[in-house]
Design a protein that fits this description.
Adenylyl_cyclase_CyaB; eight-stranded antiparallel barrel; Hypothetical Protein Pfu-838710-001; 180 residues; single chain; Class IV adenylate cyclase; CYTH_domain; CYTH-like_dom_sf; alpha+beta
């Protein structure tokens, strides 16, 4: 699946959620996530592939459903908008997958905990994210769109300052803040 997204930094999540609701956005879900990043000791996936491998455990606070997903996310462009190829598969046993990956030379490099509230408005997805303080103590919003024109319209509609828009990954943001 191809994904076009940006992060909006330096925002108040409650204020942004109020804006989205006042514009008629539809709540998709509220989640508690455990994100487990995996790489080799040489950081092959991140360093050589400009990608990351993740196991995400998602628990919906609305439905109480829990889901485990293995994802390989490959960055293919960062000019103006972050473009990724995302390959996902549901898994049933996190420990078994981790054991398989470890036997292949891939290990858990970081585990982070995130609260996410997601909305849809005008075919765009908005994820309001708050990580645990050790992972990334600054809240942000991800906007996922179908094309750059749609992003421009949303930025204007929500009155988002251009300097708050980032195409950086969470790993890059963590490096910037010396959180690695």
């Amino acid at each position: 699946m191809k994904e076009l997204e940006v992060k909006v930094l330096n925002i108040d999540l409650k204020e942004m959620e109020s804006k989205l609701m006042s514009l008629g956005a539809t709540l998709i879900d509220k989640e508690l996530q455990v994100n487990t990043l995996i790489d080799s000791k040489e950081n092959f996936i991140q360093g050589k592939l400009d990608s990351y491998l993740r196991i995400r455990e998602t628990k919906s606070t609305l439905t109480k459903d829990t889901k485990l997903t293995l994802t390989m996310k490959k960055n293919i462009n960062r000019e103006g908008i972050r473009e990724n190829i995302e390959i996902n598969t549901d898994i049933s046993d996190k420990n078994a997958i981790l054991e398989i990956l470890e036997s292949l030379g891939y290990y858990v490099i970081q585990e982070g905990f995130k609260e996410r509230t997601s909305y849809i408005l005008n075919n765009a997805r908005f994820d309001l994210d708050k990580w645990d303080d050790l992972t990334y103590p600054y809240p942000y919003m991800e906007i996922e769109v179908n094309d750059e024109d749609e992003l421009k319209d949303i930025v204007k509609l929500l009155n988002i300052p251009k300097e708050n828009i980032s195409t950086k990954s969470i790993v890059e943001l963590r490096k910037e803040k010396n959180l690695l």
